[in-house]
Amino acid sequence: MNYTLNQLQIYLKIVETESITKAAEELHLTQPAVSIQLKNLQDQFDIPLIEVLGRKIHITDFGREIAVSAENIINQVNAINNKSLAFKGQLTGKLKIAVVSTGKYVMPYFLSGFMHKNNGVQLNMDVTNKSKVIESLEKNEIDFALVSILPAAINIEKIDLLPNKLFLIGNEKTTKNIEDLPLIFREKGSGTRQAMEQFIQKKKLSVLKKMELSTNEAVKQAIIAGLGYSIMPIIGIKNELMNKQLFIIPVKGMPVKTTWSLIWLKGKKHSPVAEAYLHYLKQEKNQIAREIFSWSEKY
After folding, report:
1. Which one of 14, 39, 82, 256 is CB 3.0 to 4.6 Å from 166, fit for a cystine?
2. What is the pLDDT along the chain (299 residues), one digit of tens a residue?
3. Top-level CATH class of 93-162+259-298?
4. What sign does the dihedral 227-233-235-241 (CA atoms) show?
5. Left, alpha or beta for 259 (phi > 0: left; psi -120 to 50: alpha)?
């Protein structure tokens, strides 16, 4: 046997996603690179790890057993690395954070300084929609969640990081009423959609729903292409505003204002890593907000 840790890590991601394409995306690798590493690992065994039926990957029973062993190996290697760092007095362990999709424009800036200071910390950041973020929080699968609208059904504690402002956005300026414009919605479960629907209901508007898209990036590109307008967080369209690809359409009652907050289950006992991260945020969050996001204050 001559497999590598890299091959095992890639294989575990394939098993998790049941897709070479998705595994490549999440690992920030090309699809051919992932396929090559999978083939190199498969060559170590006479029994198939996966089967391809149609266009879908199926993990064989043998493949799942190998995945369990691979996960144990990776965990043991991480434990060795952590012990080495801990012996040197460095902070070690995992930091698990779930982030609503638009939060990808926010969370990395509140993480980078902490991660650079603590090389022994491993970050696991899942970027998904609000419903899945809250589900992960309720199951206690994560340390923290980043949201722009607080969940009402669970008891949480929080630290506010940044104001969140949403405007009506289009690819050209217009004086038309919002009710006369074709609107693009995010998918159900999205915090942005929730804020958008609350505004529409509060103002008792009758709007034209043009389409529904699953990511902020998809909405952004659809607006640039002239397919419609949408109510969007300004935090994700800085470059497009500066390049005049997108414009803020004046609407009475806007911007819609929420807050980017890092939340956790009330009473949760934090790991040393999570506790250290909270301490870091309390000290640094205001400076990060000023240095990185002050541009949004003029809107």
Report:
1. 256
2. 788 888 889 999 999 888 888 888 888 889 889 899 999 999 999 999 999 887 788 999 998 999 999 888 887 877 776 666 555 556 788 899 999 989 999 999 999 999 999 988 989 999 988 888 999 999 999 999 999 999 988 999 999 999 999 999 999 999 899 999 999 999 888 889 999 999 999 999 999 888 999 888 899 999 999 999 999 999 999 999 999 999 999 999 999 999 999 999 999 999 889 999 999 999 999 999 999 999 998 88
3. alpha beta
4. positive
5. beta
